[in-house]
Write a structure and sequence with these properties.
Strand order of the largest sheet: 5-3-1-6-7-8-9
Shape: globular
Radius of gyration: 22 Å
Helix content: 25-40%
Largest sheet: 7 strands, parallel
Number of strands: 15
Strand content: 15-25%
Number of helices: 14
CATH architecture of the largest domain: 3-Layer(aba) Sandwich
CATH topology of the largest domain: Rossmann fold
CATH class of the largest domain: Alpha Beta
Length: 396
């Protein structure tokens, strides 16, 4: 309906894009919330199987659909894993219910977040009569790819989806190698709200203590154990330094034990999970940010870590690894320092380079901020996503 005075369309006429996120939202999914709530050219709806963390991630109830879960979902999973030996899929009644909800919402596009969810939603992706976009973020293109049934299911997703998005060029190449047609692939970088992460120079005086930060979920691929081992090598030169590990996860007890074994307990602080305000405070207090990602034993890999981009935007010099999409954000010697995966000695040497060279630290910090401004601005990347939605709608 057009506004008679201006000739512009009424906001209610914006096309609906329905995003499926299995759990809306887990604490580490701030990037998803930023992306969905930042949409302007389309009207976002959300489909989920579980609504959680409502205070942290607000969203209008009238545009959020909680899909019912089958009572015997544990049985479905058991049969799929141990009898059929293939990924589970929606039951027929779940498919009918989801299609009815999408019809009620008048959805013009279905966006499925995460490739591992898309595998279970194959019946819906095939049956939905409108375009479907599936976005991959890292681990969802690596885990279980050695299982033939899982790989076959993933290729069904590639065949049925209209567009397949990846958060990094490295991930795009991985998806193509797994069988996704190149013409379906699109790069969709993560977006950092630059208004929340302003640049602040860090102290350069030698009498200022070095506070080093890693912020992440405490899992194998984040390489926190490498950070601890590297810090143990740095500490004799800078005995007043402090390492802050911000985040929670299944490895926390193991990592705290390792810190004790390395004699670091008094110099390492584990904060647990932090909200955005608390995390921002830790980032701005840090004089260096480290993120030594690696490929875990199950094939889990990074895209481009959001926490690293936020640190770069804030003005903290970064040390990271040649891993996944990280080199697309960090150019060694330009916007940070890069070291090989699983090399605590190289990580410690890079940290010491920054600590001993104030000019290098300043140059890396400024280079990191420029990269985020040029490639990872939230507003610019949401506009790219909206253009993709509108392109699919126009072609439908």
């Amino acid at each position: 309906m057009a506004n008679e005075e201006t000739g512009t369309k009424h906001p209610e006429s914006k096309p609906v894009v329905a995003s499926y996120v299995s759990d809306f939202l887990k604490p580490d999914m701030l990037h998803v919330h930023r992306q969905i709530t930042g949409l302007q050219a389309v009207k976002p709806w959300v489909l989920t199987h579980k609504r959680e963390n409502t205070a942290q991630f607000p969203f209008p109830d009238k545009r959020l659909i909680v899909l019912p879960k089958p009572r015997l979902r544990w049985w479905r999973r058991w049969v799929s894993k141990h009898v059929k030996r293939e990924p589970w899929q929606l039951f027929r009644w779940e498919l009918r219910h989801a299609l009815l909800e999408l019809t009620r919402a008048e959805a013009k596009v279905l966006h499925v977040y995460f490739g591992h969810s898309a595998i279970h939603l194959r019946p819906l992706i095939k049956a939905f009569p409108r375009p479907v976009l599936v976005s991959f973020h890292g681990a969802d293109a690596g885990v279980d790819m050695d299982k033939p049934a899982h790989l076959a299911a993933l290729r069904e997703v590639f065949e049925s989806a209209t567009i397949v998005q990846a958060r990094s060029a490295s991930l795009m190449n991985d998806l193509e190698n797994l069988g996704c047609p190149r013409e379906k692939l699109r790069l969709q970088s993560t977006g950092i709200p630059l208004e929340d992460w302003t640049y602040q120079s860090r102290p350069s005086e030698n009498d200022q203590p070095w506070r080093i930060l890693q912020s992440c979920r405490l899992i194998e691929k984040k390489g926190v154990d490498l950070t601890l081992r590297a810090f143990a090598k740095v500490l004799p030169t800078y005995p007043g330094a402090e390492l802050v590990i911000a985040g929670s996860g299944p490895q926390q007890d193991e990592l705290e034990r390792l810190a004790g074994e390395l004699g670091l307990s008094s110099r390492v602080r584990f904060t647990g999970f932090l909200n955005q305000a608390e995390l921002r405070e830790e980032v701005y207090r840090a004089r260096m940010f480290v993120h030594p990602s690696r490929t875990s034993d199950d094939g889990n890999r990074e895209g481009i870590p959001n926490s690293m981009l936020e640190a770069m935007a804030s003005g903290a010099p970064v040390v990271a690894t040649h891993h996944g999409g990280i080199p697309e954000a960090v150019t060694d010697g330009g916007s940070g320092l890069l070291v090989p995966e699983n090399d605590a000695d190289a990580l410690a040497a890079a940290m010491l380079r920054i600590m001993e060279d104030n000019e290098l630290a300043r140059r890396l910090a400024e280079g990191g901020r420029r990269v985020v401004e040029n490639k990872f601005d939230r507003v610019a990347n949401i506009r790219i996503l909206e253009s993709c939605y509108l392109e699919m709608i126009a072609a439908d």
